[in-house]
Amino acid sequence: MTQNGIVLVVSVSIIKDGKVLLIKENKPSAKNKWNFPSGHIENKEDIRKAACREVKEETGYEVKLNGTTGIYNFISDTNDQVILFHFTGEIIGGSLNLVEDEIVDSKWINVPGLIDFNQNEFRNAGVIKQIISRLQNEQIYSLEFFNEQIFH
């Protein structure tokens, strides 16, 4: 969702057996770039529900969010101001089913091995690098920080 020129985005590090899932995007703004499953928050959508929806849409997995590495404010590769809400989660259902036109590959990487990954292959590498650092240092915070969305 874009609001006042700001793009609101969610992303999730799906962690399983000490590994995290990366997806390779095939979007016009991110050809052959690795990223965590992510996407825009829809109008009036709860942030946590948006994160689970995006994971399901891009990977086929149903996830339960279990933490957050934080909120990131940056200028994207496409020169948009982005506020990114990044979560950690675990698979609770579904199976890997990548969106054909948008996602061309996926791989599970050991969390320590993420630092050795070619940074030029990441979408918005500076932000991904910050997220990786927090994952490696186990700087994962409670979801209590995010209140349920209240509709009037």
Explained architecture:
The chain is of the alpha+beta class and 152 residues long. The chain has one domain (2-143): Nucleoside Triphosphate Pyrophosphohydrolase, CATH 3.90.79.10. It has two helices and eight strands, in the order βββββαβββα. It has helices at 47-59, 125-136; strands at residues 2-3, 6-16, 19-27, 30-35, 38-40, 61-75, 81-94, 103-110. Strands 1, 2, 3, 4, 5, 6, 7 and 8 form an eight-stranded mixed sheet that branches. A hairpin with a 2-residue loop joins strand 3 and strand 4. It is globular and about 35 Å long. The protein starts with a strand and ends in a 16-residue tail after the last helix. The mean pLDDT is 89. This is NUDIX domain-containing protein. Belongs to the Nudix hydrolase family. Residues 5-132 form the Nudix hydrolase domain.
Provide the number of structural domains.
1
Helix content: 10-25%
Which class best fits the helix and strand makeup?
alpha+beta
The count of helical stretches stands at: 2
- CATH T-level fold name: Nucleoside Triphosphate Pyrophosphohydrolase
Mean pLDDT: 89
Radius of gyration (CA) equals: 14 Å
Strand content: 35-45%
Task: Give me the strand/helix succession.
Answer: EEEEEHEEEH
Which CATH-level-2 architecture?
A: Alpha-Beta Complex
Tell me, what is the CATH class? Alpha Beta
Q: Which sheet architecture does the biggest sheet show?
A: 8 strands, mixed
Keywords: Hydrolase
Pfam family, one: NUDIX
Family: Belongs to the Nudix hydrolase family.
Protein name: NUDIX domain-containing protein
